[in-house]
Amino acid sequence: MSEPPIQDEQVAAYLGDHPDFFETRPDLLASMRFAPAHGNRAISLHERQLEVLRDKLRLIERRFADLVHTGKENDAIGERLQRWTRDLLLAESPERVPGIVVDGMRSGFSVPLVALRLWRVKTGVLSPEWVRATPPEWIDQVDAMRIPYCGPRGDLRFAGWLPSAGADARSIALLPLRHGASPQSFGLLVLGSGDADRFHAGMGVSFLERIAELASAALGRLSEPG
User: Fold this and answer.
1) Is 2 part of a structural domain of the chain?
2) Which H/E stretch holds residue 171?
3) Both 152 and 174 in a single domain?
4) Any domain includes 58
């Protein structure tokens, strides 16, 4: 009865258990030839190892370049966030804060479509631009949002608050505004983009949550006590 053929896994396991195998068989090592990754000439084990190492080095270099690029992007975002926060803190009067929130999204974070609507705020302080009547069921929907929404415009009613009634928006983000962990909201910041991938359902929302927290803290001075 013939012996079963040796499997690749068995060879790999044996060589893993006997790392000095080729030291005792230098003749075998010298006779080994491999198909190169590039070209048609057969190469030795040593040359093949060098090819593998070069490929790994190129991969590491690409990953390092990506990390550097991401770090620079994060630094730039941090600087824009700091400037926006500073503008909010230096607002000469509370009624100017809504405009600073919206302008910061447009100029600082390059969001082309922005809308802000507030409710449960002090009367006679803000212009009607920010406190237009909002149906109670819409407010209830915002109250139920615990994290920002990101996704396609679809038929979401809040997209209609954007410029041109949201006709140019293909993706939107909804950032509820509230005092800390209060169950009640006092407004909604709506961000829109003509890019369908700018605000998508699979993206992380931690940065948007930070934006919402800062905007809520700045605008909270205008809201009625909960």
Assistant:
1) no
2) strand 171-178
3) yes
4) yes
- Give pTM, 2 decimals: 0.69
User: What contacts 127, CB < 8 A, 6 or more positions away?
Assistant: 95
3 state SS of 72 = helix
* 89: Cβ contacts below 8 Å, ≥ 6 apart: 218
198 and 152 together in one domain = yes
For residues 204 and 102, membership in a common domain is answered with: yes
Q: Are residues 105 and 78 in the same domain?
A: no
Domain end position, chosen among 35, 61, 90: 90
DSSP annotation string for 181-192: T-SSEEEEEEEE
Per-residue pLDDT of the chain (226 residues; tens, 9 = 90+): 455 566 777 777 777 777 777 667 666 656 666 565 555 666 566 666 677 677 777 877 777 666 666 666 666 777 888 999 999 999 888 889 999 999 999 988 999 999 999 998 887 778 888 988 899 999 999 999 999 999 998 767 899 999 998 899 999 999 999 998 889 999 999 999 999 999 988 888 899 999 999 999 999 888 776 5
Please give the full DSSP string across 100-118, using - where no structure is assigned: HHHHIIIIIS--SEEEEEE
Residue 116 maps to which CATH number?
A: 3.30.450.40
Q: Which two tokens stand for residue 24?
A: 């005792």
* Residue 1 falls inside a structural domain: no
Per the structure, the count of domains in the chain is 2
Helices (H), the chain: 8-17, 21-24, 26-31, 45-89, 97-103, 136-143, 206-219
